[in-house]
Amino acid sequence: MSNARRILDVRELTVRRGDVLELDGISFALDAGESLTVRGETSSGKDALVRVLGNFLERGDSVTGTLKFGDGDARPASRRGKGSIRISYLCSPRFAPLSPFASTVSQLARIVACKQATAGSSGREELRIALERFSAAPSFASLNRKPSELKPVELAWSLLAAAMAQTPELLVADHAFAGLTPTEIETLGRALMDEQERQGFALIYAAQGLQTAAHLRGRTMVLRRGKVIEEGDFDKLAAGQCHAYTKILFKALPRFAATPQARGAQRGEPLLQVQGLDLSPRKRRNSRPRDGITFELRRGAALAFVGEEGSGRHAHVRALLGLDRFTNGRVVLDQVDMSLLSSEMTSRLRRRIAFIAGADEVLDPRMTLWDTVDEPLRAHLRLPADMIAGHREAALKRVGLASHDGRMNVAALSAFDKRRLQVARAIVSTPFLAVIDEPLRGLDAFAQTIMLELLVDLRKQEGPAFLVITADLRIAQALADDVMIFKDGKVIERAPVADILRAPKEAETKRLLGAAEPARPLPPACAEPGELILQLARAPTPFEPEILGIPPAEIAVAEAAG
Fold first, then answer.
1. Where is pLDDT greater, at 343 or 255?
2. Where are any strands of DSSP class E within 352-442?
3. Residue 433 belongs to a domain with what CATH number?
4. Is residue 529 part of a domain?
5. Is 397 contained in some domain?
6. Which of 30, 116, 148, 503 has most Cβ atoms within 10 angstroms of its Cβ?
7. Tens of pLDDT along 482-508?
């Protein structure tokens, strides 16, 4: 791209927020049609870079350095103005970027019209045209609903269409695909790359994980503590031609084992027995029911329900646990027929079931950290206060939250801390079954690794059976023994996880497998971090990558790079 037009030139950009140095004199350039994926942890400085480029500076931000957009003059970053190029911003639907009180189409059309300085009707038409270019996107008419009524992937397509309708010269994507499934990320990433090739805009994509970079072309820049640790072509970095810290990031990613092997699961007496469960309503009174799903989950074993959103995973789990009624089939949980229980008895039976979800809204934000862990002990077991405190402290220590102030509200915790708090609450309840729903959603690579280790430790120490709900076969391999693939409310394939990965039979299974393992290969997984991860998670200080097995000397090399 030596003859391409220079779109962005950043020189010695430094950002401070109060006493915190977020960016420390970084410099880079970007040409038209070029992509740059900026990777870093929460405190790496990538969010500060997005604030500067998107002109979202907040009170307390102190900015120095210069920015040059297009053919304009280099300006102080603190007084960048509008610049001489069209810049569009694309964020994740999980950021809730739109008002919940107006229709999606009216808000996005207003944004497009404002950016293009045209009438609202023109913005609406441009949005419609952009949306129709994406075959997998929702229909334009469906956007008349409020944002809360759309699925996350539908909102992601809508936001992408609005950004493309603005015909940008520079697109700043802020974790745009975070929280979506691997197949959704793959499809959206391919659409974004096609639009970039068609329009020729420059792209900066800020991401927590390197997994998204595997779907995007161009360079990757790794930030740590405000400094550029690494910058180069993704394929070279993935091949191991990189600094120690970048290797750590690759090592922390969930990925498939090179040679999947069947694991010997702890298998006790049957815990959950399902016979002919069919959730589809009968069309006629005398009509014959369809063949429903039949399976058995033994104590200590782990089963994964794998499929896209709307495939029927959650509907079947709700029926299995007695949350929704069903007319066809039989469910026996802990030797009790669920259809014979009253609502009160069903509720009492569910006390021995733990729920760990990637949606942090399952926790009451007004409760304190201590009260959240105490609740199952106080409400279900009615233990004395001294025993409750002892169980609580042990659980918090196991997940690395013992050093936190137990009187702080859940709302003040980070996403990673909230996820660990859910595991602590599961530990104290000594469940016989743990329902785990997309446990890694929204976490960065290090946090994902630690979360997986905590869940494996929960199963090893407490011995509950696992029922895992996910769209990512990598998570299924890490946590489950057997897999059931769902599509359109039916189970289309069922096998041990090793067999699914080695020889998938159905097209849907192959599609899920291909999305989880990008065409651009990641480096082979290093040795399992195992107990080291748990030691780090339980440490009172913020975790560092040394725990992943990289020698201190190599870490020092990464720290010195810039």
1. 343
2. 353-357, 433-437
3. 3.40.50.300
4. yes
5. yes
6. 30
7. 999 999 889 999 999 989 988 899 999
